[in-house]
Amino acid sequence: MKLASVWRSKKVRRDTAVALLFILPWILGFLAFTLYPMAASFYYSFTDKSIKSMEWVGLENYVKLFSNDRRYFKSLSNTVYMVAIGVPATIIFSFLVALLLNAEVKGMSAYRTIYYLPTVVPPVAGTLLWMWLLNPQRGVLNAAIESFGVRSPGWFSDPTWSKPALILMGIWGSGQSTVLYLAGLQGIPTELYEAARLDGANWFQRTLRITIPLISPVTMFVLITGVIGTFQLFTQAFLIGGTGDYAVDGAPRQSLLFYALYLYRQAFVYLDFGYASAMAWILFIIILGVTILLIRGSTHWVHYEA
Amino acid sequence: MNRNHLSRRDFLRMGMLGTAGMALAACAPQVVEKTIEVTREVEVEVEKEVVVEQTVQVPVEAGREDMVFWPEWGGHEADALLVQVQKFTEETGIIVGFLPIRDHARMIASMSAGNPPDLLMTWDANAVGSWGFEGVLRDLGPYIEGTGFDMDALHPMGVKAGNLMGIRQIGLPLTNYITSGFWWNKDAFQAAGLDPEKPPETWEETWETAEKITVLEDGAIMKWGYGILSGQDRHPATMCYCFGGSIYSDDLRQVTPDDEANIEALTWMRQFYEKYGADEIRRWQESVNMGADAPTNPFYTGDLSMVVNGEWIPSFVERLQGDMEVNVGVTYMPYPASKPAVKGTMTANSNPLVIPTDAKNPDAAFKFIEFISRPENSGEMCTTVGNASPVKEGIPIQLAGVTSPLYRWLLEVAWTEGNVKSMTLNTPVGARYMDAFRLAREEVLEDGRDPLEAMEAVKDEIQPLLDKALDDLGI
């Protein structure tokens, strides 16, 4: 049946109107709080918009970003480091923990709860907790390391260790990915493992040939959401790296100057909303590009058939 | 037709009726009897005409707010301010919507959207300057002239912090506070065999004293003589001023990071990094809690002997005294031995009150500024907050109620005899300039970059931005 003839039906038209009426609140919210701000920020990125004043400057903000801002590239490289190392590390850890939590062991519900608990800790509280755990002189982790006669790293005071420390924090809070993996693992038909066992496959071979391919849709989801979230990393760096009148952003030595942190400083301290909008749009394009690449590349390694 | 189910049309009709009913109910005025106590002077005819005070109950329309006030304070500071707000309402009948908030972003958003409060107060006088250059704050000049507000009654530091390069007064101080007192721990001095009543006077003596007190263990700092960049010396202006330097020319049209005295300051600071190592210093800074309210603050426990900090310290020391022995002293910042004229230099800042351009009731807001600028009101509030009254006559009122010898010294000596300089100098590029200065300072202290070369690079980066901004503003 053609669309035009369907549309001629009074019932279809009435049903569509009713459906639209029901989703109207969402549509209005989307237009007012998502589409309009996006369009406005796109326009602002070609202006020198501040709190009130605004003049068209064309591509000046974009040119300046790529030619005359060392801190921009520092923030971008720090963020890419976290995406390139932090996201895979978190995925591997979540997967391994999910494998453990999938084992048939007594008291497994308690273990699962324990592993998930950090996820419900608010980011601010979690960050403060880790700042204490990693305190160079009084931290529990450092005391454990130094009990082996090795000098512990300065973690958040050392530019070499600050990002790895942040990745460690991210891994601690990866309960959500673990739960997703766990759900995925439980969806894999047990017959496949039984058949593999009969063929003489060991645990490693079963994991490599059955589990990882069949869990790949979950890996894909965790990877994409992880990449998007990490590109926008803010709260932890804001708390640890300091911002404001007295501190240099991204301390120590700008090693925690992430993209979103620098964008915030441009907008709310330097009041350069035009420049911050240009930064936001470049970030959007980067995230979009990486996501498209991941989706395109996924045809080679993601298997949806069970 | 016998209908045994609710049709879609009826369902929608009922839903819309219900929604409309709820909306109407929400719009209905609340009928709440509310009054405030107002003390009025009334003339009473008796045998002879006299003036007596009478407290009357004035009905107040529920939900009515004549002006909205957002202070960027919380805790006991917001409570102290609220007491004054209530007194203001009692005296004038002006109802104040009082909403303490803790972030600039909301203030900026409200001004950007054209719906700001009538009165704003922030602890960050630098931010106020940049807002002022954006034209979102009112020039208080006409109000000052119109009401005969006495600017000479205020300490000049607080006035300067709210001034835009001499062209506009956009803020008036709610409180002032010294940001750079030189604090020393007497017990730590005694433990190191030093005279606990004799803090160093010059920067040279400070270095020598710090060396005597500092204790290392396998290269790690266990006791720290001088807490370099662990207190208010992190603000570039502090060390520049206390070495006799500057960050701007007098007319604020030139940035002066390469001032000879600034280079001396950086060279003096670098000694610590050369001797103890940047990694160890950062490691120590990361290990300790420098919060003024923290009992574990190494300055209170004696693990840190000397630090630059503000005049809020006495109130926290008093609170801790019951639980621990905190034996500390405060004096002027040190000065270079070759420049005795720099002696007595201290930096200070203010919490400015500003009126946004789009304020609905700016007159009421300025009335509150006048009210809180009366010596008795300012003195009372500042004593509770632990800051100095920005009103000259407010300080004697504070002194009458002050018990802490530390606070007394700051109010009685530092504010009246010291060379108190404003840390806030408003220019359109202030935040960018300070960031560039701090980044260059890191390179000087930690990487051994030549200080003059680094500061000249800052000047080369910032001066064109300042020139352009002043041109754009037509200043």
Features:
heterodimer, A: 306 residues, mainly alpha, MetI-like fold, 2 domains, 15 helices, 71% helix, 0% strand, B: 475 residues, alpha/beta, six-stranded mixed beta sheet, five-stranded mixed beta sheet
Q: Explain this structure to me?
A:
- The complex is a heterodimer of chains A (306) and B (475).
- With 306 residues, chain A is mainly α.
- Chain A has 2 domains: 2-44, no CATH class; 61-300, MetI-like fold (Orthogonal Bundle), CATH 1.10.3720.10.
- Chain A is built from 15 helices and no strands.
- In chain A, α4 (70-101) packs parallel to α8 (162-172), α4 (70-101) packs across α9 (175-186) and α6 (123-133) crosses α13 (235-241).
- Chain B has 475 residues and is α/β, with parallel strands linked by helices.
- Chain B is built from 19 helices and 15 strands.
- Chain B has helices at residues 8-27, 75-92, 104-112, 125-133, 141-147, 156-161, 186-191, 203-213, 236-242, 260-276, 278-287, 298-301, 313-320, 362-372, 375-385, 394-401, 405-417, 430-447, 451-473; strands at 35-45, 49-59, 67-71, 96-98, 119-121, 163-164, 168-169, 171-178, 181-185, 215-217, 220-226, 304-309, 328-331, 345-354, 419-422.
- In chain B, strands 3, 4, 5, 8, 14 and 15 form a 6-stranded mixed sheet that branches. Chain B has a 5-stranded mixed sheet with strand order 10-11-12-9-13.
- In chain B, β3 (67-71), α2 and β4 (96-98) form a beta-alpha-beta unit.
- In chain B, α9 crosses α10, α10 crosses α18 and α18 runs antiparallel to α19.
- The longest helix of chain B has 23 residues, at 451-473.
- Chain B is globular.
- The model of chain B is unreliable at 28-60 (pLDDT under 50).
- Chain A binds chain B through residues 18, 21, 50-53, 135-138, 154-158, 244-249, 252-254, 265, 268-271, and chain B through 8, 12, 104-105, 108, 111-112, 124, 126-127, 130-131, 134-136, 220, 232, 234-235, 279, 282-288, 431-432, 434-435, 438-439, 442, 446.
